[in-house]
Write a structure and sequence with these properties.
heterotrimer; A alpha+beta (about 350); B alpha/beta (about 425); C mainly alpha (about 325); A: about 350 residues; alpha+beta; SH3 type barrels; MetI-like fold; 3 domains; two-stranded antiparallel sheet; about 10% strand; B: about 425 residues; alpha/beta; 5-stranded mixed sheet; globular
Chain lengths: ~350, ~425, ~325
Amino acid sequence: MRRLLAMLAARRGRGRLHWTDWASYLHLLLGLLVMFGPVLWLVLSSFKSEAGLIEFPPRLLPYEQARVSVQGYPQPLPVFRITAGDFKGRELAEVRRIGLQAQMLDPASPGEILRVPAQDRERVMRLHFALENYTDLAGRFSFGTYLWNSVFITVTATLITLLINSMAAFALSKYRFSGRDAIFVTILATLMIPPTIILVPNFFIASTLGLVNSPWGVIWPGVATPTGVFLLRQYMLTIPDELIDAARMDNASEWRIYWRIVLPLSAPALAVLAIFSVMWRWNEFLWPMIVLNKSETFTLQLALNSFQGELTTSWNYLLAMTVLTLLPVTAIFVLLQRYITQGIASAGVK
Amino acid sequence: MKPGHGFRALLAGMALATLSAGANAATEIRVACYSDGNECEATQALLPKFEKDHPDIKVVIDKQAYKAILESLPVQLAAGQGPDIARTTDFGIISQYFLDLRPLLKDAAYWDANYGPTLDWLRADPSDKGIYGLPTQITVSAPFVNKTLFEQAKVEMPGPKASWEDWAKATRAVAKATNVPFAMAWDRSGHRFSGPAISAGAKYFAADGTPAVVDDAFKAMAKSFVGWNQDGTMPKEVWGGQGGGGYRDAFEEFANGQIVLYLSGSWNIARMEKQIGTAFDWVAVPNPCGPAACSGMPGGAEFVAFKTSKHPKEVAEFLDFMASEPIYAEWMATTSNIPANAALQKKGIQYKLSPAGTAAMNVFVQQGALLSPVAYRLQGYRYKQVIFNPIADRLGQAVAGQITVDQALDRISADVKDQLATVAKK
Amino acid sequence: MSDAVAGRSGALARIGASLIGLVFNLAERPMALAQRVLGAPRLPWVFLTPNLVVFGIFTFLPIAIDVYYSLTGGAQLLPADRPFVGAQNFRELFECESYLDPTSCKRDLFWFGIYNTAEFVVLQVGLMVVFSLITALVLNRKIIGRSFFRAVFFYPVLLSPVVVALIWKWILQRQGLLNAALDGAGLSTVNWLLDAHWAFGWTVFVSIWAHMGFYTLILLAGLQAIPRDVYEAAEMDSASPWRVFRRITLPLLAPNLAVVVVLALIRAVQIFDEVYVLTGGGPGSATTFMVQYVFQTAFSQQVRQYGLAAAASLLLASVLFGLTLLQLRSMRSKDR
């Protein structure tokens, strides 16, 4: 381990590939498999039928038993390959099964019923993407409404978060006043409160304020985030005070200094907070579940979870819905990747 | 991207808001619902019929996760923010908000005659005559068996009076002969465990009516059960692989042909039909016997009405509609559930099931008639989860090997006592 | 075509920017007024107000209510309906024959929660820092596709805990992907979530999987901030790579490492969602952590022992508060 670390610490890269380069690429490829493989598995699984999902051993790609429509039978019949006996090697459709005997027919000549022992056959599987997992969603509920609610909550909450957290961070980083440190410590201390703990009192407060069943009931409680204040303050500390003093000389008001000088210079940190806020809000579940209970106010996460009953869960829809909810965050991430990595980098340094 | 796209979306949103505000002119009834299959969807499908006769009432079904109802409903009701009706199985703490529908119903006698036993589940005690809700179905717990495996192993299936011990022996023989990893599995749930325990003679309540869960029969069944988990008759992960009082079924293992006998209940019929398909033959069998009974457990959720509703009259009208015989029959047919309605139980429901599904449904309906009075009493107990949760939690710990069976039994008693003391504290 | 699109989105961006500008301009007058009336020294409080109001209403007030809950008993939820019991909830939590043996305690799950959480924090934070550091070191090298791999390691950070847990549950259950792969390779399968040690190990792994990307980026930034000439000087001295790492890289990376350790600690103590979905706290109570105990007591029992949950959560919060002070001290020493 130590040796590996040591080797990795060195900056090679000139000339031919050193063995540490091989080790690095091995690490990265393993990382690719472990970090991304499971997500890919989720996406593939979302195209499986309910029966396909619980099959063991699981298949990588979505397969289901082939079926064939035969005249005279209202439902398509499942197809089997015969593995032994008189019909060995043929593909027959099953009409019905009685005990150990199956009554089958050849789809080419449907008139004749053939009897086959049940253990002498295996299912014929075919690749089938269960797109109905996705298309049914539209019919099962008002997807558009939930999407709109989620987007509205995410965007509004993120904008407010950015505004008020940057204001607080500005005050905490660019002013000296008595009580500053106490305030900062108090805000940071709230980082320690697991949100689960204050769920119930918060509901009574939201209810008193008339925020129940309103998107604002989800938005307000989370907009003041200790992480946000912390990240932004740390970043703003790196902005030289001379810039601000120069602006004050020019008689700029404090507000103008805040939004014309400090805010633009904090863009990378704001980008980080933005992506985190988007992520938190988009994925938020427990609190919306308690505050929102009218279906027209539901977010995507709530709709997704409504597939879970007491005794059963509709996994196929739940997975399809999960994949759909992943798309926007993924898209934002891909678009803003550069800012995010830079921002986290700069925020973490100080 | 089109210019002004966001703006248009905003406008659309506003238009939608005003639209729904316009719809508020009619009285709105909110139903918090969860589905184990298609219960909410089936209710939704019946709404047009109701709204045709009651154009002034608009019923909105809010489909949520079961856990959402379980966890947030009490908080909402305490804050006066609850729905008008909720589908739930927890009739404990929220019972203080129940609305008595009796004076509001068109024909309370019809309800008493047809839904009598299940209406009791919502009542505080025998002197309570209130009608607080409508059962959305009845469930019965009983085992499913993989018949194909029995045939392959050439083992005779135990008859209707066989004991759990007989079944354990037979299914073990089948598992061994067919190279299937496990003989039996029971859903991880105190409710499911209680069927066999009651058959063994567990009484659950003392003479004075207070819960006394752990008695000799209960102990004996707990010991057999943990023993079966330890000797490999049952897959340990079902009860041991999870913590807390949480539910876990063994449906997946059964559907994959890894288990010979699976103790679950009538709600799984439609799912079996859909997901097992032609893979093997599955049948429902009568509940195995013990010295005291051959009983499973009844169960079921109810649509309960709340006092906090601003429209009790309309709530009663809606539930009257759902309870009426033709509507209830249609509801049960689409959800493949056993009706709680006595008249319909006699007449039978025309299910849309395959022959295998219909056969299984018949077994469950018969089993419903054979349940022990103790089972009904337990299910009708207001704080039944206070009993069920520790059973799953503590026996789960014992199955996982973290504590002994005796420690688990002590903990069950202590947990039940502790929680009931919390309720009693006023 | 693409020009038109670019033009449109450019126009859109301009509209957005001018809208934001408008909002800030609107605020300028009142803020200037506030500056004149209150004077510049009090202005920071104006900037702080919105944040503090929200904190006050949705964080501090609920905590105060929780303090009251912790002193009451019964099963009612409205604080007014609950009987006052004094310190009884706290006493009950500490009612043990031996603090080393959770099964001897009245609230055994609370103590299982404490011990499990402590073990989890040590393992998870330790391993995660090591993994993040190695990954950061690798990503800091001149490698092909660096930004792609950086994104790959970061991506799981974006997933909700529930999704993380669901994905891994499907992989780890007895009939899951991992066992299918082992089976296919002719190896014997393991019931990952049934064995207490494996299950615990997997919760550690899964939470590292879900969070390490964030910490890797912080460390990577620290590595990139180390001036190149420092290394070049070391290379001239032909110092061994291990020596370079220990004498140069580690000390210069210390501030970032401190941030990482403290943030990871706070996160780890609060571990809940992903484990709750993955193992439900099992097998038995092998992965029942503090926050889960609080949640179970307050929400998933039929009778909600909210006073007990509030008491436990206050204890947890005070432990966490100690950790914050630690963090602040480490930051202070850094600022100097």
